[in-house]
Known about the structure:
By secondary structure, the chain is an alpha/beta fold.
Amino acid sequence: xxxxxxxxxxxxxxxxxxxxxxxxxxxxxxxxxxxxxxxxxxxxxxxxxxxxxxxxxxxxxxxxxxxxxxxxxxxxxxxxxxxxxxxxxxxxxxxxxxxxxxxxxxxxxxxxxxxxxxxxxxxxxxxxxxxxxxxxxxxxxxxxxxxxxxxxxxxxxxxxxxxxxxxxxxxxxxxxxxxxxxxxxxxxxxxxxxxxxxxxxxxxxxxxxxxxxxxxxxxxxxxxxxxxxxxxxxxxxxxxxxxxxxxxxxxxxxxxxxxxxxxxxxxxxxxxxxxxxxxxxxxxxxxxxxxxxxxxxxxxxxxxxxxxxxxxxxxxxxxxxxxxxxxxxxxxxxxxxxxxxxxxxxxxxxxxxxxxxxxxxxxxxxxxxxxxxxxxxxxx
Length: 380
C-alpha cells in the first residue's frame, strides 16, 4: 500500500545529502573532540566549521551558537539560565506556546512570576497588552513568544516584539523551531537575546539543535562535567549529528526560494481539494498562505461519524498527519493550542497536515482521495 507522509511539522525525512555527510563522518571520524591528538583535533575542526556555517546562515557569530539535543533542551536551558544566572524574576508568554516552553516555565522555582499576554481569536499577540505588562512592573522580565506556531502556522512579529522588550529593558526568547530554514534570519539586525532550533524540522537528524544566545547574556552550564561547548554544555559533542545539522541548514537556505514556492503550491492544491471534496470544511487560523507558515495547514472537518477516529482511519488509508503537536507523548489528546483559541469542538475533528519539499502533487491527490473516503460526505 502506498504511504504518504504529511506530518513534517513533527519531523522531516532526512535528506539524501545530509545522510551522505553523516555517513562519511561515521566512517572516518573516530576521535574525541576534546582529545589533543590529531584524531581529536580533526573532529574539533569539523565541529567548529559546522558551528561557523550555521552562524553564517542566520547572520550570527560562531561564539553565539551552543549545540544541544534539540529545541526542548535549548528552551529548558534558556529558562533555567535566565532565572539562575540573569536574575529573571518574571516570565511573560502566551497560552498557545509549545509544551517545550510552557512546561519548563511551570517547573521554575516558586517566587518566579508568570503571566500570559493576551492573544486574538486567531492567536495574534496583543502588542499593546504586552507593552502594558512590561511597563507595570520593574521586576527583571523574560518574554518568550514562539516565532511560528507549530499547530496553526501563525507568524508572530518577533522584530516588533523584540523592540518592545528592549524599550522596557526585558529579555526576549523566541522558539524558532518551525521557522529557521524556512525563512531568512538576520540575528544581527533583530538583536534578540535567545533563539532555539531543532534539526529534525528541516531534514536534519533527530537529537540535534542549538541555542543562540546574545553575547551580553552571561549564562552558565546546566549540565556539568567536562566543560564542552565553551563550558556551557558538558558532554562529548554529537559530531555526526552536528555535521548533519549544518548540512541540513545549508541545503535549506541554498534552495529556500525553490522549496518554498513548491510547498506553497502543494498547500494551495490541498486547500482547494479539501474545499471541493468536503462540505463544511474550515481551516483553523485561516488558510491565508501569506499570513501563515506555508508548510502547515490545520483543518477542521464537519461533524461526522468518523471524526473521532479520523487520524487512525487516515493512517489505515496510508496518510500520516497529526491531531496536534506530535512532540509530546500521547499526542492524540486534545490540542491546548486550539482550546486556547476557541477552535476546539468535540463534534468536529481537527487535523494538521504539514508539507515538505519532498511531497508531490500526486501525493496530495492521494491524500485528498483518502480524506474523501474517511469523511465520505462529498460535494459534486
